[in-house]
Amino acid sequence: MQIGVPKEIKDNEYRVAIIPPVVGVLAGAGHHVMIESGAGIGSGFSDEEYAAAGAEIVTEVKQLWDRAEMVVKVKEPVKEEYGYLKDGILLFTFLHLAGNRRLLDELLRSGGTAIAYETIETEDGQLPILAPMSEIAGRLSIQVGAFHLMKQNNGAGVLLGGVPGVEPGRVAIIGGGVVGLNAAKMAVGLGADVTVINRGHDRLRYFDDLFAGRVHTLHSNSHNIARTVTECDLLIGAVHLPGAKTEKLVTREMVANMKKGSVIVDVSIDQGGCVETMIQTSHSKPTYDIDGVIHYGVANMPGSVPHTSTVALANATFPYIMQIAELGFNKAVKSTPSLERGVNIRMGQVTHPMVAKSAKKECAPLRI
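The structure assignment produced for this chain is given below.
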């Protein structure tokens, strides 16, 4: 199979979709991997390393897209890449189409096939490719929140861990999935006062057992959210439903009642965000202020630690890439239900039920 890996051009996105050891395995199995020149530099991988592993280094990105049967990326295509989308191509990347109607329309227009990392789901509900990025984003959310709480960054000047004789900062986490769990680990590790809000009681029981009472747990309802949001110094949005647009659980009124200088980090922004006042931002301009509350809405948070996140992502995607390369799309999807669930677009139709619902479109049966 002809596999193309372009350089990511989203704002401050330094990750790359495939690492040299993966290239070596694919090339050894008889597949041809094309890497755009410079694609791996931000993650610490040179063109020479890719070439030594068996990749062809391509300097013209359009040539890469034209020749590839499967294009493997990290983030969704941006406006400058829409012209490369075409009939017959297979795109394998993060898409988050529930929060990006323009891209959805472009993919439908192209007639190609798009598999989204974030909707590849196992029988037991695990998200094997999204999970490592969620782990990184959850941990980063506390780091960036603590940074923006500092006074020179217009924050309230609160140290999350406090010191003897001074109470610690309060962290509220809405959502108890992978992001919420990893955010809680970091916040507890810093010594913060942590509250996790989640709908499922079993998950709250898990948090209580895991942290041995060091984390407060609350059922998700508007009363508990409003009270906790008002009292916290750092709010983490960690709500996720595969393929679906995120529900706005934190209202504009709740934000207006938050402490001045408090910080919101909405990790769920790539699916629309769970905070009503949150819009997508970028690493080059990550925050803005509403009612004295700092809003952080960067959709590609793991891109700020590209070496760690690239290796973690490559470890997760490799089995699927190899299976598609070896079997072809049809056989790979038929033999792997989790991969079938990852297909969002096929032949001009939406094939994922939650993406279709978010876009108010009919969900078509997957044609293979």
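Interim note for the steering committee: The chain has two domains: 2-126+306-359, 132-304. Residues 2-126+306-359 form a domain with the Rossmann fold fold (CATH 3.40.50.720).
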